[in-house]
TrEMBL record:
Residues 271-287 have a biased composition (Polar residues). Keywords: DNA-binding, Nucleus, Transcription, Transcription regulation. It comes from Caenorhabditis nigoni. Residues 152-184, 266-292 are annotated as: Disordered. This is T-box domain-containing protein. One of its GO terms (molecular function) is RNA polymerase II cis-regulatory region sequence-specific DNA binding. It is found in: Nucleus. Residues 156-166 have a biased composition (Basic and acidic residues). SUPFAM superfamilies: p53-like transcription factors (SSF49417).
């Protein structure tokens, strides 16, 4: 018999057919489990080995039949079973549920039926073929299969019964409506960022090397041109001053000629940047002369000449 912390039903059921009772007298029925011996069993190499039990033996807990007190004629009219009895390996479960009985694992127990007659007389019934061994799991596969196939409360049997009922209910019943709260909540999927292969980076529409172009705000300001792609093997090529394709003077200082082959760059060479404005980069902008200041300077020059 399997023991669990919450309590497990005793299966096969303890069911008795009573006879020889006085039909006009009142009787009560109860059941308890007593130790068969003082041995503790250990399953080893396919069989049980007996060891000396060191567990403290307490007075057995009696569980009354749920029908309470009845006439002898009613007790004998139909079989009497104790399907509500549960066995557990947790002592505190007896305080929570009166139908729970605490038993030690790996011990032999014998169910004892007690019939108490009105007036105090009692009779005890022991059936030797109802002796069982408590365990927390099945060690013998044949026993597990027999109990599973014949027990309607087994987990596998409950699942087999649920499957056809679930299919039948889904075919006949419409799907349940969502609550207002669920209907208001809309989960939007976040679009994933598209993956870009490194080989396709040069075909993108943004300027190379992370640089951007600014809009020409005045005709006097030279337009900023897009720089050619940076050399992947030269980190300074992203800076126009150090980009060999834009600075021929740097090339000459290095003793090289333009253009030079560079791995990773397109075959078509880029032309160096040329200013789009008519102002020469070497000339300095001239400021308009002040006529008063110019007259004073001329007068000073004439006085110096006379002196």
């Amino acid at each position: 018999m399997i023991l669990t912390a919450v309590g497990r039903r005793v299966y096969p059921l303890l069911e008795y057919q009573l006879s020889g009772m006085n039909p006009d007298k009142m009787y009560t029925a109860s059941v308890h489990f007593e130790h068969v011996d003082d041995k503790k069993l250990r399953f080893c190499k396919g069989k049980y080995v007996e060891l000396l039990s060191l567990e403290k033996k307490e007075a057995p807990r009696k569980v009354q039949h749920k029908s309470g007190e009845k006439l002898g004629s009613k007790w004998m009219a139909s079989p009497v079973n104790f399907e509500d009895v549960r066995i557990t390996n947790k002592k505190t479960r007896e305080e929570v549920d009166r139908s729970n009985v605490h038993l030690y694992a790996s011990h032999r127990y014998l169910p004892v039926l007690t019939i108490t007659e009105e007036g105090g007389s009692s009779y005890e019934l022991r059936l030797s073929h109802t002796v069982f061994i408590t365990a927390t799991l099945y060690h013998i596969d044949e026993v597990c299969k027999i109990k599973t196939d014949s027990n309607g409360y087994a987990k596998s049997n409950r699942e087999d019964r649920r499957r056809p009922r679930a299919v039948e209910s889904s075919a006949t019943n419409p799907p349940a409506k969502k609550s207002r709260k669920e209907a208001r909540v809309k989960i939007e999927a976040v679009p994933e960022a598209p993956s870009i292969e490194p080989a396709n980076l040069s075909t993108l529409s943004f300027p190379a090397a992370g640089l951007f172009t600014q809009t020409q705000s005045s005709p006097t300001i030279p337009a900023v041109q897009a720089f050619p792609p940076a050399d992947p093997f030269n980190a300074f090529s992203a800076i126009p001053l150090f980009n060999l394709l834009n600075n021929p003077y740097l090339l000459a200082a290095m003793g090289l000629q333009f253009p030079i082959p560079s791995p990773g760059l397109p075959a078509t060479p880029y032309s160096p940047l040329t200013p789009t404005s008519s102002i020469s980069p070497d000339s300095q902008p001239t400021q308009p002369e002040d006529p008063v200041k110019a007259a004073v300077i001329d007068k000073l020059i004439e006085e110096d000449a006379d002196a």
